Each structure stands twice: as C-alpha cells, then as structure tokens.
Amino acid sequence: MVVTNTTIRAVNALTARWAGDLRKDTNSVFSAAGVWPLLAFLADGAGAAAREELAEAVGVPAGRAAAAARELLAGMAEIGGLDTAVGLWTKRTLEPRQEWETGLPVGAHGVLSGDTVADGAALDAWAAKRTGGLVERMPVVLRDDTELVLASALAMRTRWLRPFDEVPLDSPAWNESVVLGLRRRTELLDRIGVADTPGGHLTELKVLGTNGIDVHLLLGQEHLTPGQVLGAGVELLARTHPVVPGSRLPYGEVGPGLRVLRQRSTTPDPPMLEVTTAAFGVTADHDLLARHELFGLTTARDTDRGHFPGVSAQPLAVGAAGQCAVAEFGAEGFRAAAVSSFALAAAGGLPQLRWTTTTLKARFDRPFGFLALHRHSRLVLAAGWVAEPTPFR
Q1: pLDDT at 353 (0 to 100)
Q2: What is the pLDDT of residue 349?
Q3: CATH fold for domain 159-279+351-386
Q4: What one-character-per-residue DSSP string does 170-233 give?
Q5: Do the bridges between strand 109-112 and strand 82-91 make them parallel or antiparallel, or are there none, so unpaired?
Q6: Could you give the 3-state DSSP secondary structure of residue 11?
C-alpha cells in the first residue's frame, strides 16, 4: 500500500480525537478511515470559513485534500481483506462542477429521483451490498431538500494466524455475568508489551491476521478513559511512547492485567505467553453533526447560505452526517464495517520439579479498547471500546 506518512498520520489523528467521545460503560466502534476521505472531498469543494474548518479537521491543506483522499482510497484498495467504495448521488436538477466530480472514484455518481422512500431504499441496498450485509442501512435519512449525498463504505475481514479456544470467562467487571472468553498460548512473548504513556501504563496485545490486518487490544490502568487508552494506542503506532516487550519484562505485576511468573516445571519448557480475553460484537451509530467541531462542520451546517462553491453553483450546506459501524472479534478472526455519509441540502500429584519456566499471564477481563489496522502502514481502519462482551453460550 502506497500512502504517504502525512496522510496516515492525519487519519490516525482523527481516530485519536474521535476516541475522546467514547464512554467507559458503553460499547462503541467507529472508523475515521471511512469518514476522512469524505471530509477531504468536501474540503476540496468548500469555500471561505467552511474550507478552513474542514482542512483543519482532515489535517492537510484544502488544496491537497482531494488528492490525499484519492491516495488513501487507492492505497486501501490494495489491502487484502479490505473492501472500500465511495458513492455520490445528486438530484437531476443539481449539476456538480466537473472539476470536483472528476476527483471522485470512477463510476461513483448516481441519481436521486426525489422520492425519498425509494431513494432511501436504494441507498440502504448500496450500503448492505458494499459491506457484505454487515451494515444494512445508510446512516442519514433523506429529506425533501436533500440535493446531494456523498457516502463511503468500508468492510474488512481477517482470520487469525492462530485461533483462540473458547472458554467461559467471569469477572466482576462484566456485572457478574459469564462472557465468551478466548484463550491461547504462544512462545511469541513479544506479541504483548507494556507502554508508559503520559496518562498511565497500558498493556498492548497484538493479534495478527493472515492478510496483514491486525487487531491491537489495549488495556489501560483503571483510571484511564477510553479516549486516553485509544489515543495512547494510536501514539504507540507512531512509536511515540516507550514499550517494554514481553520478553524483557521483569517478574511480578508488570502492567494492567499482566503478570510474569516464575514457576517450577516437570519439563524444560520454553517461556510462554498465556492470553485470556473476551469475544465481542459491537455496533454504533454516530451523528457527526453532534460533534460538528471535531469534523470541521460548524460553518458547513449553516443552511442560511451555501458553503461549497467548488461542488456546485447551487448553494449547499451539510444537512446531515453520520456513520453506522460494526465490529466482531471471535475465536477464528475479526470483521468490521462502516458506512459514512453526508447529505447536502439546499442552503436557506507431587512430581519432580527439576526445572523452572517463565509464564506471562494476560487477562483482558474488564473494559478495553481495540484498534484494527493495516500491519505494514499502521493505518487504523477501525477502533472501538468493549464495555459488554459477547455472553457465553
């Protein structure tokens, strides 16, 4: 995947800022990689204050935003196990400017008939098809004054290099209920590490997929918020904070949910990492206008006047913006999807223990965060928080 570090850092920075909205007691999942190219295309067509705010949100100058969005989409198209799509729909009476429309992926442009029920069903079908049924609807509702819809879909799947075993897992953090636990052992001690971040210590477990899409599980000290945990996890991808890998950890309680033990053994076993975590399936709907300042939409949502002269001569404002996202983490692998869209409206026994062995025991048995990312570029594709895991069957 060929995407500049500047673009990857900009997308991951939006991931970190968005994570600040998450609540500790609520499941959530989101994809900044799904929203970022749409914001970039809008920045390219925006004017005046809206252009400045959108450029600040995407982290690149507005004049380079569309090129960066195309670069990101082209790069993601090369990732195995990841499918992406961008769609544009306009009313027949709205004529997009050719310079702006040609910057979008080929074949993206469709037509809105003006029948909001029929158009909404068609857009929902597009979302379901592009995500393999994981997301069944478009996150915005069409209105009579909707002139243009710009949307993206993202779906990823990976299988673990080594699957987990399913086990029951109970913990006071799960409200005394038994959840579906996942357990496995490995000699690869450096799959886990402990980071020293400004907010506190963080245990990071890397679960590798067969196609280069990995999931990093992040367990912070109990006083840390989801935003602090996920924000620090993004910073670890940029190697901002020191991380002590599992093979170099001392004995004892070395990090959140992580112990290193020295045990007597009947056989000369190599050091082992034993991991227990929880399976999860999380969904979330996000109203992007509810955090308009985060996404650079403060001015663009003002329908008293137009803000996108580079998109169309007709005055347009952002009437609705949202994302629907889902993620599932299980014994065999991981899958996630997100559909993001912007609707632009018209403005107005006692054995002989002869040997000793080292065992790292990790337990993710209270709320934790996760990042799904492309291993080689470190681009975060989806992120979320697990407050309520999958119940044990």
Answers
A1: 43
A2: 45
A3: Alpha-1-antitrypsin; domain 1 (2.30.39)
A4: E-GGGTT-EEEEEEEEES-GGGEEEEEETTEEEEEEEE-BTTSEEEEEEEE-TT--HHHHHHHH
A5: parallel
A6: helix
Intervals of the chain under pLDDT 70: 176, 264-267, 349-356
What is the model's pLDDT at position 106?
81
Specify whether the CB–CB gap between 78 and 99 falls below 8 A. Answer: no
Nearest-angstrom CA–CA distance, 229 and 235: 10
Amino acid at site 108: A
Residue with tokens 């069409």: 142
All structural domains of the chain with their residue ranges: 5-158+283-346, 159-279+351-386
Separation of alpha carbons 45 and 311, rounded Å: 5
Going along the chain, which residue ranges are E strands?
28-30, 82-91, 109-112, 146-159, 165-170, 178-186, 192-197, 200-207, 213-220, 243-245, 252-255, 258-265, 272-278, 280-287, 316-329, 333-346, 355-363, 368-374, 380-386
Output helix, strand, coil percentages for the chain, rounded to the nearest 5. Answer: 25, 40, 35
Amino acid letter, 330:
G
Distances (CA, A) of 364 to 130, 187, 237, 283: 33, 19, 20, 20
What is the four-CA torsion angle of 72, 74, 80, 86, rounded to 10 degrees? 80
Q: What is the pLDDT of residue 265?
A: 63
pLDDT of residue 262: 84
Q: Do domains 5-158+283-346 and 159-279+351-386 have the same CATH topology?
A: no
What pLDDT sits at residue 267? Answer: 67
Calpha distance 124→393 (Å, rounded): 32
Which residues have a Cβ under 8 Å from the Cβ of 102 and sit 6 or more positions away?
none
- State how far the Cα of 85 lies from the Cα of 92, in Å rounded to an integer: 22
Q: pLDDT, tens digit, for every residue of 24-79? A: 999 999 999 999 999 999 999 999 999 999 999 999 999 999 999 999 999 999 99
AA identity, residue 95: E
Span 5-158+283-346: which CATH code?
Answer: 3.30.497.10
CA neighbours closer than 13 Å in the CB half-sphere of residue 8: 19
Q: What are phi and psi of 172, to 5 degrees?
A: -55, -25
CA distance 160 to 292: 37
Residue 352 is predicted with a pLDDT of 47
Q: Is the entire prediction scored with pTM above 0.90? A: yes
